[in-house]
Specification:
Elements lengths: L26 E4 L7 E4 L20 E4 L2 E4 L7 E5 L11 H5 L6 E4 L11 E4 L13 E4 L2 E3 L1 H6 L5 E7 L2 H4 L10 E6 L5 E16 L8 H15 L7 H9 L11 H5 L4 E13 L3 E13 L17 E14 L4 E17 L4 H6 L31 H7 L1 E19 L7 E20 L6 E4 L4 E4 L14 E25 L3 E18 L13 E14 L3 E12 L8 E12 L4 H4 L5 E15 L13 E10 L4 E8 L10 E14 L4 E17 L15 E21 L2 E18 L21 E2 L2 E4 L2 H5 L16 E3 L14 E2 L8 E11 L2 E16 L52 E17 L11 E15 L23 E11 L1
Parallel strand pairs: 8-11
Antiparallel strand pairs: 1-2, 3-4, 5-10, 6-7, 8-9, 10-11, 12-13, 12-41, 13-14, 14-15, 15-16, 16-17, 17-18, 18-21, 19-20, 21-22, 22-23, 23-24, 24-25, 25-26, 26-29, 27-28, 29-30, 30-31, 31-32, 32-37, 33-36, 34-35, 37-38, 38-39, 39-40, 40-41
Helix pairs in contact: 4-5
Length: 985
């Protein structure tokens, strides 16, 4: 604002840019929450750069918590938060992808790079539930619950801030929904002032982080012959065949096609455009945002001019949001939020392209030419199914398209009740959300394909199991609504906040909350969806807080709520939590003698939260019966009748999981807040977990329903350290975000193991089991009956040899034990670095994950199941027995060398990776360069997943974040580089 004219004030945008016209003074006062106020003298029509320094305490910033905000300096709970402008430029479609490495306690895994399906799985402080779906955090957007899919659809441009609530003190207010932590998103709102238009346009290219490397026809043929020789069967390829493969002089009789390169482009395009309009008066404020995001797939265009069918992968999303705030009377304010998200996700019909490329049983590098000399399509005539080549399928078979509409409406009011007592207000909200997805499939059968024989220039029609006949079939369409979710939420609460005698700060909240959520879904995309019974939730929540001079801090949070998932007598529970804090730096005895310590706050929380996520049907206390799709025949003639079988028994005593959480933390600022540190130790005891007891005798002939008997423990550390300073006009900061979480199963009612090493209890959730590798079998081992072998297996020299743990001379499931670690990393690290000089800014983020294992199988690594890879050239032979990196090659997929049948630590890698996760370079354009009424502009270049270093590439052709026990053939994770321009007027 102008000094001496407080009414002449303007607000800066999210990048700190503003334009002000001075009337009576040449001095402006610049202030911002959590920073020191500065007075700056300016010249006529000049640009000025104002660098604000953090305030002396550095903790006055407010953070979003459950149903409200709190200042960091008085917060006792474990909360990590980030302003959305720190992730707004990351060129990725999903919010959770942009958060990796930026928040302590936030563990992510991006399993796929497929457009529209590239959102990361994420967990808060690791996992602690034995239920597969019981570890997903609660997602709350503007105090309304969202699903995982809905979060992935949000445009980051609409978001103001994101917080993750991690301990009992901050999550107990959510009661039976808070055990897995809470991710809280707050969207942007209007600020009084003239209308401000902000336009952001960015576009760039994307390419796979890592592309698979498979052997060519010549080297593949060599290894096929080697495998056949090992198996004692005639070799497939003659020396003449090998010579033709090596020289490439017979491209149709002895072809070589690198199917990955033949089908995929080097890069594909991505674009993102957003328009924001905000402003208003003291009575009406508005924020309106519209955005369009497109992400193309990497497949080349094989469609013909005649059909124009796009079978490529692609993702298109359109977002519109309107947040409106109205000051209806002196005490009554209203809000109306509405958002609509429209998206299309496209993929080839009945074809997982990457999987097909990996799969040796479907296509070999020498199976067929890319296309026949006369322009007809070829097929893999030397495989069992004789499928048309992938390019033929892409060009002719159609696509599957998911069209999704996602909209939310929130209406609310706030009535100040200062006439009753100052600081009291009544708040009410009604929210409705709907997600509807329609699937359109355009498809037809296989096209006509031919095998060309260059010896006599003849073409032979494919008449096998994958024949397409002589003519193309007509396209057919199949459409269906396969998803329809509806959520209605009502909240009413009293909020009270007041300061007494300038020193005593009191806050409280009393909430009533009710929700109905219905999920109508058909996973097949073919059958019509049927109406389901809504899931009901109702509860009361209470928050009480007190601090004395921001020095002594006490918080109490509690919830009394329940779910109709449980029987009436066990439906409701009370979940209390308490937080204590002591800001030692505000003590006179401390501040007098420690001038370099600006903040030292100790905090501790303890409490109980719950989770109503459970396996099985919606009402576990009901006996269920299942109707089969087949019939049973009665009588001497066929009299079919539907089969109805008994399902799991009901359990009237079933209830929610409970989580007892402890957290001890410290916040520390040193040397005028140049160094900031926040660290936590946490301990979670999760009990009454719903598991199906494995100790029940199967001879009973019934299925036991889940029972509240499982117990786990999860503990760990996390910290954030940041050093920020300046040298002349250069500002810089360097940080470290570190998280460690490790869980342990204390009890899960497993069947009593025959040997102690078979027990799951005592190990981590998701602990892999397998055999222990002790070398390769030698001929002496094969001949020695005392050396353990699987019963009936044809063991040969060079096969993998495993340890006989029980010493019975036989390798079987009794010799399986723990190998490696779970697939979810127990340690994550982020290293953010930022540098600013005048209008230039640069930032990079290195993100890494450690303490996890990865083991792949099937077409990922096994010869004849998957393509031959460079590692197979280092397979065991008599000459390389001492240096072999792979077992002997064999065409038999059932030998002891198969990780699918004999998983072992030979195939399990204790993995780690480090990514150059994000890079951003930006320049604020001088105002004199800007035409028309544009008052600010910024040019920027950003990158995502730019570089990756990982140890898994020594064995696998996969990304380090793919899921274990799979073929690792998910759509390849993408590297994105984008250029953008942002202007405001």
């Amino acid at each position: 604002m102008e000094k001496g004219a407080p009414k002449n004030a303007v607000a800066a945008d999210e990048h700190g840019r503003f334009h002000i016209t001075l009337h009576t003074s040449n001095t402006i006062i610049v202030s911002y929450l959590n920073f020191q106020q500065q007075e700056v003298t300016v010249k006529k029509e000049s640009d000025v750069l104002v660098v604000l320094q953090p305030s002396s305490q550095g903790m006055e910033e407010s953070i979003v918590v459950g149903f409200g905000r709190k200042k960091r300096i008085t917060n006792t709970g474990a909360v990590s938060s980030i302003n959305a402008d720190e992730i707004r430029d990351v060129p990725t479609s999903s919010v959770q992808n942009a958060l990796a490495g930026k928040l302590p306690g936030f563990f992510t895994q991006q399993r796929s790079g497929q457009p529209g399906h590239d959102a990361s799985d994420y967990y808060i402080r690791g996992v602690s539930s034995l239920n597969a779906n019981g570890n997903q955090p609660l997602i709350v957007v503007d105090d309304i619950e969202y699903t995982y899919d809905q979060l992935a659809q949000i445009n980051v441009n609409e978001i103001e801030s994101i917080s993750i609530l991690k301990d009992a003190s901050t999550t107990a207010i959510y009661g039976i929904k808070g055990a897995n932590g809470v991710l809280v998103v707050t969207t942007r709102r209007g600020v009084a002032g003239k209308p401000k238009f902000d336009v952001r346009v960015e576009g760039g290219g994307q390419a796979p982080v890592r592309t698979p490397k498979f052997l060519d026809s010549y080297h593949t043929a060599l290894l096929v012959n080697q495998a056949y020789a090992n198996d004692g069967i005639p070799q497939q390829f003659s020396q003449s065949d090998l010579d033709h493969f090596r020289t490439g002089d017979d491209p149709y009789g002895h072809p070589y096609v690198n199917w990955y390169k033949a089908l995929n482009k080097d890069y594909s395009l991505q674009a993102n455009t957003n328009l924001d309009i905000s402003g208003g008066t003291s009575n009406v404020k508005y924020f309106i945002s519209g955005g369009a995001f497109t992400q193309n797939g990497t497949i080349k265009n094989f469609s013909t001019n005649s059909d124009g069918v796009n079978s490529n992968y692609f993702y298109k999303r359109y977002n519109v949001r309107s947040n409106l705030d109205i000051q209806a009377t002196r005490n009554l304010s209203l809000r109306l939020d509405a958002t609509v998200r429209l998206s299309d996700i496209n993929q080839p019909y009945a074809l997982n392209l990457i999987s097909n490329i990996f799969d040796f049983s479907k296509i070999h590098p020498y199976s067929s030419p890319f296309i026949n000399p006369n322009g007809t399509y070829s097929y893999a005539y030397d495989t069992q199914n004789q499928l048309p080549t992938p390019n033929a399928q892409l060009a002719t078979q159609g696509y599957k398209r998911n069209r999704r509409t996602d909209y939310n409406v929130l209406m609310g009011f706030t009535e100040k009740l200062d006439d009753i007592t100052r600081g009291l207000s009544l708040i009410g909200r009604v929210a409705y959300a709907n997600v509807e997805q329609n699937t359109l499939t355009l498809f037809r059968g296989f096209p006509p394909t031919y095998h060309y024989d260059p010896r006599d220039n003849s073409y032979h029609l494919n008449t096998g199991v994958s024949t397409g006949g002589y003519t193309y079939a007509t396209y057919r369409t199949l459409g269906n609504t396969d998803l329809d979710n509806q959520r209605t939420n009502v909240q009413v609460y009293l909020n009270y906040e007041r300061v007494f005698a300038a020193d005593h700060h009191v806050t409280s909240l009393l909430l009533w909350n009710q929700e109905s959520y219905r999920v109508d879904e058909d996973a097949t995309g073919i059958l019509p969806i049927s109406g389901q019974v809504p899931q009901k939730f109702r509860g009361y929540s209470l928050k009480l807080g007190y601090d004395y001079k921001a020095k002594y801090l006490v918080d109490f949070n509690g919830a009394l709520n329940g779910s109709d998932r449980f029987q009436a007598n066990h439906r409701e529970g009370f979940f209390p939590a308490v937080g204590l804090g002591w800001n030692i730096s505000k003590e006179p005895f401390f501040s007098k003698h420690t001038s370099n310590i600006n903040l030292l706050k100790l905090r501790a929380t303890y409490g109980l939260v719950g989770s109503d996520v459970a396996p099985g049907n919606q009402y576990l206390y009901f006996q269920t019966y299942n109707q089969a799709t087949t019939n049973y025949s009665f009588g001497q003639t066929d009299n079919p009748a539907p089969i109805i079988s008994e399902g799991p028994l009901g359990n009237n005593n079933v209830t929610w999981e409970k989580s007892r959480k402890e957290d001890i933390g410290v916040d520390l600022n040193l040397w005028n807040d140049k160094l900031t540190f926040s660290g936590d130790y946490f301990h979670e005891y999760r009990y009454d977990q719903l598991v199906v007891p494995g100790s029940a005798q199967l001879i009973a002939g019934i299925t036991i329903s889940p029972t509240n008997v499982g117990i786990t423990v999860n503990r760990g550390f996390e910290e954030t350290v940041t050093w920020h300073d300046k040298v002349g006009n250069v500002q810089y900061s360097v940080g470290l975000v570190w998280s460690f979480a490790k869980n342990k199963i204390l009890y899960e009612a497993e069947a009593s193991p025959r040997y102690p090493w078979l027990a799951v209890t005592g190990h981590s959730i998701g602990q892999p089991f397998g055999y222990k590798f002790i070398g390769y079998y030698t001929q002496a081992d094969v001949n020695d009956p005392k050396v353990a072998k699987p019963v009936g297996a044809d063991i040969q020299p060079g096969d993998l040899k495993y340890k006989d743990l029980n010493g019975d001379g036989i390798l079987n499931q009794n010799d399986v034990t723990t190998i490696g670690k779970p697939n979810l990393p127990n340690t994550t690290v982020g290293l953010p670095i930022k540098i600013g000089y005048k209008g230039f800014d640069a930032s990079v983020l290195f993100q890494g994950a450690f303490g996890y294992s990865l083991g792949l199988q099937g077409s990922a690594i096994e010869p004849f199941r998957g393509q031959f890879q460079p590692i197979h050239q280092h397979a065991w032979t008599e000459a390389t027995a001492s240096s072999a990196e792979f077992p002997r090659l064999t065409s038999n997929p059932t030998t002891i060398n198969s990780p699918t049948l004999y998983n072992s630590d030979y195939w399990t890698i204790n993995a780690h990776y480090i990514r150059l996760k994000t890079v951003e370079l930006s320049y604020i354009l001088p105002r004199k360069w800007l035409p028309l009424k544009i008052n600010n502009g910024r040019l920027y270049l950003t990158a995502y997943n730019l570089l990756t270093w990982s140890n898994i590439t020594k064995k696998y052709q996969a990304d380090p974040e793919v899921a274990s026990n799979t073929a690792g053939d998910a759509y390849l994770t993408q590297r994105v580089i984008s250029v953008g321009l942002q202007v405001g007027l």
